[in-house]
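Reminder to self: tokens first, then the designed residues, so the page reads top to bottom the way the pipeline ran.
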């Protein structure tokens, strides 16, 4: 099939590359000429495991190409994916200007039947708005489909190639047939293609992300309560996660969720409810709790050292909002950095992939270490904000030697409490007992 993907951000690039991997001819379109030139040279602008392998292979085999021209991209394409940003406004509503702007342009240039596919996360009713925007400028037959993505950063290639399900909002049999043909190679193991109306498909994405954000936030609330009463959140997590009605995933407590999806989508769902005079009370609570949770490690630091951190140097392991990505959007680490700097602390930070992105945002306000141990030189404490695998089994003897004080505030519960009890550290995590083996 000939496919166009408008937008070469995270979703667009993964979508285009993975569709090319199954033999389709995909042309990706972006208005950023410099970015397009880099992509043509084989430079992948995001860090996502295994994407570079697929990208290079399909580029060499001419199944994946790039252009700045919307007309060139859609001329011979049967399917046109819109993978455009929908950033939140100040009130939380999704900004559809990019999506509707491209839709209007499509209406002016299409000259035969096309299926226009909303891949971006969009509010309920967007498919109809896209349809009206295109129809203003053409009498050519076309269909608009809602096909939300469910890609986890760090696992996006696998999620696309082996999806749990494919959701398609579609009211046209002609479009349904094409979407079935497109996705058949991805569901050969029997996972479903779920066809539904466009509004239900649009809401499915918001509902899924908001529910997962709620699971995370609920466990953070339980963890906070555990600290007050002396219970162990790890044991509770296992106790409830073994219940098949609940499941084991998204029950790990920590310092809150971040990234490009959960914060934006939860906020957008709340705003969508407000627009029809419906108050999503659970969603509102999730937003409030998560905001506070991002600063929970800062509160632990203040409780230990006091409100004034002048003269204190803190190491920070992890800047990305989660491991296996360089994405720092809404990352708890950024909230922590701002709060700690305001309290007078100096920060030595290390992250395997995200440091250049943080430099672009906050510059030289903090120090950037070459590796995780360099960040520990003569620091008063270590804070862990991202659960990178490289942090899971460190050399604690070396850490003790490098740090001024062997104090760890762990926002991701990386270390076993029984093991930490054998080490000369002060170790405080989320929802578990504090280990204090400092001498003197």
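Designed residues (440 positions):
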């Amino acid at each position: 099939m000939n496919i166009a993907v408008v937008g070469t951000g995270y979703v667009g690039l993964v979508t285009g590359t993975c569709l090319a991997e199954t033999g389709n001819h995909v042309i990706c379109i972006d208005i950023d000429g410099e970015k397009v030139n880099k992509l043509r040279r084989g430079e992948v602008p995001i860090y996502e495991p295994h994407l570079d392998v697929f990208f290079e292979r399909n580029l060499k085999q001419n199944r994946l190409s790039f252009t700045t021209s919307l007309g060139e991209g859609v001329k011979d394409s049967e399917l046109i994916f819109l993978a455009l940003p929908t950033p939140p406004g100040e009130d939380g509503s999704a900004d559809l200007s990019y999506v509707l702007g491209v839709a209007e342009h499509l209406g002016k240039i299409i000259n035969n039947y096309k299926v226009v596919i909303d891949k971006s996360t969009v509010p309920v009713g967007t498919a109809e708005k896209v349809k009206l925007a295109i129809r203003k400028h053409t009498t050519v037959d076309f269909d608009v489909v809602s096909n939300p993505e469910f890609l986890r950063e760090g696992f996006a290639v696998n999620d696309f190639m082996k999806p749990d399900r494919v959701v398609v909002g579609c009211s046209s049999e002609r479009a349904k047939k094409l979407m079935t043909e497109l996705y058949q190679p991805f569901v050969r193991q029997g996972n479903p293609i779920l066809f539904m109306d466009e509004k239900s498909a649009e809401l499915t994405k918001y509902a899924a992300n908001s529910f997962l954000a709620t699971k995370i936030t609920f466990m953070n609330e339980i963890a906070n309560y555990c600290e007050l009463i002396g219970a162990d959140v790890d044991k509770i997590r296992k106790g409830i996660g073994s219940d098949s009605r609940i499941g084991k995933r998204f029950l790990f407590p920590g310092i809150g969720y971040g990234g490009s999806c959960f914060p934006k989508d939860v906020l957008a769902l709340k705003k969508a409810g407000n627009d029809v005079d419906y108050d999503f009370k659970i969603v509102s609570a999730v937003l409030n709790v998560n905001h506070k949770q991002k600063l929970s490690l800062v509160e632990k630091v203040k409780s230990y050292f006091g409100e004034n951190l002048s003269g204190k140097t803190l190491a920070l392991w992890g800047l990305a909002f989660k491991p296996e990505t360089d994405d720092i959007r809404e990352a708890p680490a950024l909230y922590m950095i701002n709060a700690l700097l305001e309290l007078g602390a100096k920060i030595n930070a290390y992250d395997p992939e995200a440091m250049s992105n943080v430099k672009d945002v906050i510059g030289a306000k903090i120090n950037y270490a070459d590796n995780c141990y360099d960040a520990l030189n003569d620091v008063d404490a270590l804070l862990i904000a991202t659960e990178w695998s490289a942090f899971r089994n460190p050399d604690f003897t070396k850490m003790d030697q490098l740090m001024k004080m062997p104090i760890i505030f762990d926002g991701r519960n990386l270390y076993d409490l029984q093991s930490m009890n054998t080490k000369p550290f002060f170790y405080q995590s989320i929802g578990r007992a504090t280990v204090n083996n400092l001498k003197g």
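The first helix runs from residue 10 to 21.
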